[in-house]
Each structure stands twice: as structure tokens, then as C-alpha cells.
Design a protein that fits this description.
The protein is an all-alpha fold. The chain has six helices and no strands. Helix 1 packs antiparallel against helix 2 and helix 1 crosses helix 5.
């Protein structure tokens, strides 16, 4: 999903037609919905079997993941607005794309993610 996001953000650096923006985002969301389902299923599969029956633990894991993922959300809109004011549309989307490139490379470099296998 990371590389698709990189391509989407990079293409939005120059696309100004609202219909084209909608098409790009629509294609991205069409890919991200199944990817999110796959990630949720993987999280459940990676939870040790002796803990899977404990709904409370699964709830805590999901809550922690959402807390971490959403912690920076309130800062996103003001930061993007400030960046748009300073460097314009291309600079803003290319900056966001570069940040996703770094995250995606870090994900691919992670041994625990690269070597993840389906639990027996």
C-alpha cells in the first residue's frame, strides 16, 4: 500500500482537474479498502493462539493501534495548510510523498515484516 500512496501523492502534485483528482483518489481507495482488510486479518492471525479467545486483548491491541495511528491526525490539516502556503501544491504533495517513501522503505527494511509467515 505504501508505494501506491507514494504514486498517488506524487501525481497529485501536478493534477489540478477535480475530476482527475477524484479518479486518482477513487482508484487509491479501491485498492486501500482490501489492503486494510488484509492488514486487520494479519493482525488477528499474528496474535498468539492462546490469546485469540480473549476479546479484551484483541480490543486493546486494536485500540492501541488506532491511538498510535491517529495521534498526529489533528496536526495534519494545519501542517498541510502551512506547507501549501509556503511551497505550493507540488511541494506539499512531493513532501508528503517523500515522507511515505521513507516509511515504506523502513517497512521493507524491517526483518520482522519481511520474514513474517502465516502462523501454523
Amino acid at each position: 500500500m505504501g508505494w501506491i500512496t507514494v504514486l498517488t501523492l506524487a501525481s497529485l502534485a501536478w493534477v489540478t482537474n477535480p475530476l482527475a483528482v477524484g479518479a486518482i483518489l477513487g482508484l487509491t481507495y479501491a485498492v486501500s479498502a482490501p489492503a486494510n482488510a488484509l492488514l486487520a486479518a494479519t493482525q488477528i492471525l499474528r496474535t498468539p493462539h492462546h490469546l485469540q479467545g480473549r476479546v479484551v486483548l484483541q480490543g486493546r491491541v486494536v485500540a492501541a493501534a488506532f491511538l498510535i495511528a491517529g495521534a498526529a491526525a489533528p496536526l495534519g490539516a494545519p501542517a498541510a495548510g502551512a506547507l501549501l502556503d509556503q511551497v505550493g501544491q507540488p511541494g506539499t504533495f512531493l513532501t508528503a510523498s517523500a515522507m511515505i517513501v521513507m516509511i515504506t522503505i523502513a517497512m521493507h527494511a524491517s526483518r520482522s515484516i519481511r520474514t513474517m509467515t502465516r502462523p501454523a
